């Protein structure tokens, strides 16, 4: 989860500062959402590679076990949307940010790759769906902020 801090929080905040802005509650709120998005990418990769990584890596997914790691992925995916809703309610994000909810089908497809009866081929597609979810959600949220 250290990577989600550096690839989510830090990169978002640095990009904001580079544009001449100062750190405030808005950018911290947005960075938190992107940190969770990055966490889904990393966790998805770790769940998919549990067997391959055994013996030389000790990832969070390995420590939790596959079932609990899949549950954590569901919790993080849900938290992303709950956080956006909460930030809209607090008027940190504009109401247009709710357009990011159009990425929910990609989140369901991602989680579906790890359902109990999923084939190995579906498990292998998980990173593709994680990337599609990250891209669609991130783009929709960015557009909503720019236009809101």
TrEMBL record:
It holds the Pfam family UbiA. The keyword DNA damage does not apply. GO terms for biological process: menaquinone biosynthetic process; vitamin K biosynthetic process. Keywords: Membrane, Transferase, Transmembrane, Transmembrane helix. The chain crosses the membrane at residues 25-48, 69-86. Its main location: membrane. It is found in: Membrane. GO terms for molecular function: prenyltransferase activity. GO terms for cellular component: membrane. The keyword Isomerase does not apply. It comes from the Bacteria. It is a multi-pass membrane protein. This is 1,4-dihydroxy-2-naphthoate octaprenyltransferase. The lineage of its organism: Bacteria, Bacillati, Bacillota, Bacilli, Bacillales.
């Amino acid at each position: 989860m250290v990577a989600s801090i550096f690839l989510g929080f830090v990169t978002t905040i640095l990009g904001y500062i580079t544009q001449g802005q100062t750190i405030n509650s808005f950018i911290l709120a947005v960075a938190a959402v992107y940190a969770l998005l990055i966490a889904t990418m990393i966790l998805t990769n770790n769940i998919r590679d549990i067997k391959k990584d055994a013996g030389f890596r000790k990832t969070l997914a390995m420590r939790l076990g596959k079932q609990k790691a899949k549950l954590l992925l569901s919790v993080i995916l849900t938290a992303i949307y709950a956080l956006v809703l909460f930030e809209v309610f607090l008027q940190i994000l504009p109401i247009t940010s709710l357009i990011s909810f159009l990425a929910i089908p990609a989140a369901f497809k991602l989680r579906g790759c790890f359902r109990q009866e999923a084939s190995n081929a579906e498990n292998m597609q998980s990173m593709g769906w994680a990337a599609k979810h990250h891209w669609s959600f991130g783009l929709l949220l960015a557009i909503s902020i720019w236009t809101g």
